[in-house]
């Protein structure tokens, strides 16, 4: 059943603590997951994390990638200001004290200075290494054996040694090549298992490349278009995330979310499902009126005003951290996102983006 009285109360405006799930020693066959809902509801926190009052003069904190390990949230995000982008790492255990977490600016690591943005973090089990995938004008990555030691992130390497692939150059128009995302299937044979690299162009196109798990991160193929919208580029904008739906088979095995624009210029997420990473994508909750996450299906915690109208670039909080990007959609989700005061008018890179958390409501 997809029922939670406590979360339903949150949707109505009452902040209620969730009871602990009872433990059992009984061994039973794992049930099949419930079908994915045709609509979602969320409760949002207020802003949890913003720029520090330090000599960095950061305007906004954006593009979070987050894994939760033994109760600790490990967060990687973009640091934005008019002069450019880099990235930051921080961690916390208490959600409502996240804003006091110390920042480690990743330009202090061998990952280095210069344009780096829109991170995705995961543990690549075959190499026993954490990977940080990001954009630096190419699709880049760094590695680290210890997620909790940000000083060890390596200098950037790229997935496409020859630069922007031709299909992207031919179709990008006046857009930007952004938001790289890696997801691998779960085939046992590393020569048959494929790792896929997705990216967007801010021009209505979602691209996909692939290589074998045995060759990863080398050997990415020339991209193909995984999804496109030739009528409205703002309906298929950026920030694509692809997750394996734990335990699911058939058409709900994988879930794709992509950021889009509302008719009045705010951000929200659409969603699709597929039986395979390289398959056809079927709409799930994919409209402004019925989004995966957006203004129409997000309310705010008791005592928190509607501080943002955009549910922008974010990621489902993952407790399974490997390259398959597995998420248990049968349990209420957490989704960390960037929001911004809609009344602020300034250059995009100088917008005061803040990070917040959505908690899914089950009915």
TrEMBL record:
<comment type="similarity">
    <text>Belongs to the glycosyl hydrolase 62 family.</text>
</comment>
<keyword id="KW-0732">Signal</keyword>
<keyword id="KW-0964">Secreted</keyword>
<dbReference type="InterPro" id="IPR005193">
    <property type="entry name" value="GH62_arabinosidase"/>
</dbReference>
<feature type="signal peptide">
    <location>
        <begin position="1"/>
        <end position="17"/>
    </location>
</feature>
<dbReference type="InterPro" id="IPR023296">
    <property type="entry name" value="Glyco_hydro_beta-prop_sf"/>
</dbReference>
<comment type="function">
    <text>Alpha-L-arabinofuranosidase involved in the hydrolysis of xylan, a major structural heterogeneous polysaccharide found in plant biomass representing the second most abundant polysaccharide in the biosphere, after cellulose.</text>
</comment>
<keyword id="KW-0378">Hydrolase</keyword>
<keyword id="KW-0326">Glycosidase</keyword>
<dbReference type="Pfam" id="PF03664">
    <property type="entry name" value="Glyco_hydro_62"/>
</dbReference>
<protein>
    <recommendedName>
        <fullName>Alpha-L-arabinofuranosidase</fullName>
        <ecNumber>3.2.1.55</ecNumber>
    </recommendedName>
</protein>
């Amino acid at each position: 059943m997809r029922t939670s009285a406590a979360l339903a109360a949150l949707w109505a405006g009452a902040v209620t603590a969730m009871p602990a799930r009872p433990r059992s020693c009984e061994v039973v066959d794992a049930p099949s997951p419930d079908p994915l809902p045709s609509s979602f509801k969320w409760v949002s926190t207020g802003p949890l994390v913003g720029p520090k009052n330090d000599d960095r003069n950061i305007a906004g904190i954006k593009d979070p990638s987050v894994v939760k390990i033994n109760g600790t949230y490990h967060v990687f995000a973009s640091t934005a200001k008019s002069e450019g982008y880099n990235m930051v790492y921080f961690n916390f255990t208490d959600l409502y004290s996240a804003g006091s977490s110390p920042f480690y600016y990743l330009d202090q690591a061998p990952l280095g200075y210069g344009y780096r943005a829109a991170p995705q973090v995961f543990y690549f089990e075959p190499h026993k290494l954490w990977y940080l995938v990001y954009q630096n004008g190419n699709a880049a990555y760094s590695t680290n054996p210890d997620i909790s030691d940000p000083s060890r992130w390596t200098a950037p390497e790229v997935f496409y040694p020859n630069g922007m692939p031709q299909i992207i150059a031919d179709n990008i128009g006046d857009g930007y090549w952004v938001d790289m995302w890696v997801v691998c299937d779960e085939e046992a044979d590393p020569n048959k298992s494929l790792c896929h690299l997705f990216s967007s162009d801010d021009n209505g196109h979602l691209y996909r490349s692939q290589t074998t798990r045995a060759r990863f991160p080398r050997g990415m193929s020339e991209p193909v278009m995984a999804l496109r919208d030739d009528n409205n580029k703002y309906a298929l904008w950026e920030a694509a995330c692809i997750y394996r739906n734990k335990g699911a088979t058939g058409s709900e095995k994988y879930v794709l979310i992509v950021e889009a624009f509302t008719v009045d210029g705010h951000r929200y997420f659409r969603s699709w499902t597929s039986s395979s990473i390289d398959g056809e994508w079927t709409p799930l909750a994919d409209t402004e009126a019925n989004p995966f996450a957006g203004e129409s299906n997000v309310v705010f915690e008791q005592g928190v005003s509607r501080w943002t109208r955009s549910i922008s670039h974010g990621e489902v909080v993952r407790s399974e951290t490997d390259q398959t990007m597995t998420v248990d959609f049968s349990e209420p989700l957490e989704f960390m996102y960037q929001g911004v005061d809609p009344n602020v008018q300034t250059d995009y890179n100088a917008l005061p983006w803040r990070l917040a958390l959505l908690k899914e409501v089950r009915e």
